[in-house]
Specification:
Blueprint: H1 7-14, E1 43-44, E2 50-54, H2 57-60, H3 73-78, H4 96-110, E3 114-118, H5 121-124, H6 134-149, E4 153-159, H7 165-171, H8 177-194, E5 200-205, H9 207-216, H10 228-252, E6 258-263, E7 268-270, H11 275-287, H12 293-298, H13 303-309, H14 318-324, E8 331-334, E9 339-343, E10 350-352, H15 373-385, E11 390-395, H16 412-431, E12 435-441, E13 460-463, E14 468-471, H17 473-484, E15 486-487
Parallel strand pairs: 2-3, 2-12, 3-4, 4-5, 5-6, 6-8, 7-9, 8-11, 11-12
Antiparallel strand pairs: 1-15, 9-10, 13-14
Helix pairs in contact: 4-6, 8-10, 9-10, 10-14, 15-16, 16-17
Bound molecules: 4-nitrophenyl beta-D-glucopyranoside (PNW).
The site of 4-nitrophenyl beta-D-glucopyranoside has 12 residues, from loops.
């Protein structure tokens, strides 16, 4: 039997009347006829699954010279002519440093249960080490208080690429283990001051991105193109910083605080779901992440990684590896794309399939659509290493995002992207893969590194001239997902 609803009843049923009145059909003939009031949410997530969103300090805060903040390598890089699209810098960004209270009200309106932010190291230690700047920690303390008052759980990242410039000048940044040690001191200090209220800390964000893109390809700060041997050593200092950071957080934080990281592990997935391709993808998951996640979860570099690099392999001590392998409480996975794998007869047992030119991607050309990564990557991480708590600490998409004269951004491509990825995430969670929460990147449009402000990832559109925030259609979609704890 068909059920008919008035527009108002329908709106009440889907719970969005107050949010998008102008998007609902206006003519009565457009009323839905076949939606049953007791229709179950087809893909519901477990009770307590955490829905969140994420940002990072340099991408949103602005206020780069305020309250004693020291310069970071990102200030220097973005102000170097030719390094960023349109010469864009993070000088003002979303002005979140001044607008955080209003932003948290928007988070509340979206229904966010958790928010992942990062701390700017050079606000806390303007020259990387030494005497802390009390105004630095004070900002994050206020931010955390406001989040808790809005009933939003703070998840704190300690390093999202804004290395104090002083450490670059003094030590060559991550080229020296002195930077790893300085990171640990800074991490311990932040944990000491925030862990009465913040219960989840992530050490480093996307080591792969800042090491490989920053020190090998030169497209991100500090813009270096080092030799293979030197890049391998930088990579080692990054994982070492993570390990020393874990130890420092444990030493200084209140009991019960959980520590992890947010890594963009290669999300290896079988091109066809047969046992041979699945086994090959599992092998690829371990080896393709050998310099990062595998080293951290096993406390060693794989034999294949060391053999592959030979004389260029990183120099390390047994104590380093012990620190790197410090037990963690959760793995945060930033996932945007999928690495497709097939079985092969070569010694590794697998081959990565290069993307054909016609492979679909979002506005960023690297952002190839592959929702299955959200199923396979967490599943392999749980299977290979026995990880019991996983978060998707980033997932999202860039879109052309036009603000129409009627005041909306109809980002149907982002909704398509999110719906597909969340469906794959649901597939894993319903099989028992221990993913406990999901953070959409990003809460609002922001400074997209070398791509500047032209590449928008936000659920909220930001007019960078006026700083006005407008929820995109994808924000309405995500609000529904959160409210239903699942997908229709
Ligand atoms: C991540 N790539 O960066 C970062 O954690 C965010 O700060 C960033 O805004 C977001 O993803 C979207 O880009 C990446 O070229 C940057 O493959 C570049 C790549 C991947 C991730």
């Amino acid at each position: 039997m068909l059920n008919r609803f008035s527009r108002r009843e329908f709106a009440k049923l889907i719970g969005s009347a107050a949010v998008v009145p102008s998007i609902l059909p206006t003519s009565s003939s457009a009323e839905p006829v076949n939606l049953h009031p007791s229709a179950p949410v087809a893909h519901s997530f477990p009770k307590g699954f955490l829905w969140g969103s994420a940002t990072a300090s340099y991408q949103v805060e602005g206020a780069v010279k305020e309250d004693g903040r020291g310069p970071s390598i990102l200030d220097v890089f973005s102000h170097t002519p030719g390094k960023t699209n349109n010469g864009d810098t993070g000088d003002v960004a979303d002005d979140h440093y001044h607008r955080y209270k209003e932003d948290i009200q928007l988070m509340k309106a979206l229904g966010l249960q958790t928010y992942r932010f990062s701390v700017s190291w050079s606000r806390i230690f303007p020259t990387g080490t030494g005497t802390p700047n009390p105004k630095g920690i004070d900002f994050y303390s206020r931010l955390v208080d406001q989040l808790l008052a809005a009933n939003i759980q703070p998840y704190c990242t300690l390093f999202h690429w804004d290395l104090p410039q002083a450490l670059e000048e003094k030590y060559g940044g991550w080229q020296s283990r002195e930077t790893s040690k300085a990171f640990a001191e800074y991490a311990g200090y932040v944990a000491q001051h925030l862990s009465d209220r913040v219960k989840h800390f992530m050490t480093l964000n996307e080591m792969r991105s800042f090491v490989d893109i920053g020190y090998r390809d030169g497209r991100h700060a500090p813009g270096l193109k080092l030799s293979v041997a030197k890049v391998n050593q930088v990579r080692h200092h990054a994982v070492l910083a993570h390990g020393l950071g874990v130890q420092a957080i444990r030493a200084h934080a209140k009991p019960g605080v959980k520590v992890g990281l947010a890594e963009n592990a290669e999300a290896c997935a079988p091109i066809i779901e047969t046992s041979e391709h699945i086994a090959a993808a599992a092998k690829a998951m371990r080896e393709e992440n050998a310099g990062y996640l595998t080293a951290i979860l096993e406390g060693k570099y794989t034999d294949a990684y060391l053999a592959h690099h030979g004389a260029n392999a990183p120099k390390f001590t047994a104590d380093d590896m012990k620190a790197i392998g410090s037990p963690i409480d959760f793995v945060g996975l930033n996932n945007y794309t999928t690495t497709w794998v097939r079985a092969d007869n070569n010694p590794s047992g697998y081959a990565i399939i290069p993307a054909p030119e016609s492979y679909p991607h979002m506005m960023s050309s690297w952002l190839r659509v592959g929702p299955q990564g959200l199923y396979w990557a967490p599943k392999f991480i749980a299977q290979i290493w026995g990880v019991k708590e996983i978060y998707i600490t980033e997932n999202g998409a860039s879109s052309t995002d036009v603000l129409t004269p009627d005041g909306h951004v109809y980002d149907s491509d982002r909704i398509m992207y999110l719906r597909n990825y969340l469906t794959q995430l649901h597939r894993g969670v319903s099989e028992g893969v221990p993913v406990k929460g999901y953070f959409c990147w990003s809460f609002m449009d922001n400074y997209e590194w070398a791509d500047g402000y032209a590449y928008r990832f936000g659920l909220h559109y930001v007019d960078f001239k006026t700083q006005k925030r407008t929820p995109k259609l994808s924000a309405h979609f995500y609000k529904e997902v959160i409210a239903r704890n699942g997908l229709a």
